[in-house]
Amino acid sequence: MKVFFWIVFIFSLITSSLTISDLVNGVEFPGWELLIPIISFSVSIAGFGYLFQGKWLENMNQKQKIILAIFIPIIIFFFTLSITSSLGGNPFNWENTWYVWMFYAIYCCIFEYKLFADKKR
Length: 121
Fold this sequence. Notes:
Largest sheet: none
Low-confidence stretches: none
Mean pLDDT: 75
Number of domains: 1
Order of helices and strands: HHHHH
Structural class: mainly alpha
Helix content: over 70%
Number of helices: 5
Number of strands: 0
Strand content: under 5%
């Protein structure tokens, strides 16, 4: 079941960032089409909250947490790189893709915080 939530979470991240690209470029969502960005952002936030809570983070030892802390941001980096390259020719063109990289940094920071937060309080 977790694999299904991971897949839905990754697809919601992709649609959220593409929706941000549409909104920044001036595409208007009239009527019912406005539900697409609302649903994609809601699923991405809810999925992030669901996947990064619970006992499985508490039961990991320090080495497992360090491995996750290295590889999850790298995996998300490649998703972000593919999204930014679909927006234009150069994925590191900060004028056109800054908002996608900002979301990447926010998700990585929240993930690292949740992973290494002191759960004993």
